[in-house]
């Protein structure tokens, strides 16, 4: 991921957690693989999203959070430490207003090879999942559950696998069928924390829907796809096959 993208992500996280968050000032999981994505939505539920590895106890997760002043968690949607599934909670303010939040913690554990991840109406990419699992979204659009929809800088999708793999095959679609005009990174990692760039797709590298193939380093156990620089186009990722 280039320096511009890192700056954009950091800026988005800062403003989301300090100026625009209606309820949460911050939310942190010790040992998480990613920074916490804290996104305020005006017309729909706001979102907290992060990714952890398989070493943490998902049913008793050590979470630290801080609410903004004059805010409290509704007694009808109390917050406990079991994040096996995503949570829907309500934040109340002293002025009588309230805001709904979705808290999404993905526990990413290695899947067995060959690994086939294909989303559809019968196998949706949504927040009804049960942890742990071999894939994790990060800021993706869950309202488009038949694909992994990416529509902003820094949005990503993570996959973990359990043994040396030779290649990853996947489909990228430019929504609307146009020629791609942004930057899209595919990266690998040994531990899910330190990442190296495998391929950057640049303007003109694919059009419409294309099936793409990349060789994988033998020591890698994680792959992630990141929309590094968006230029007014949404991207769909699907039909991932790692062997």
TrEMBL record:
Keyword Signal listed? The answer is yes
Q: Where is the signal peptide?
A: 1-21
Q: Gene3D superfamilies this protein is in? A: Galactose-binding domain-like
Name of this protein: F5/8 type C domain-containing protein
Keyword line? Signal
* Record's keyword annotation contains Signal: yes
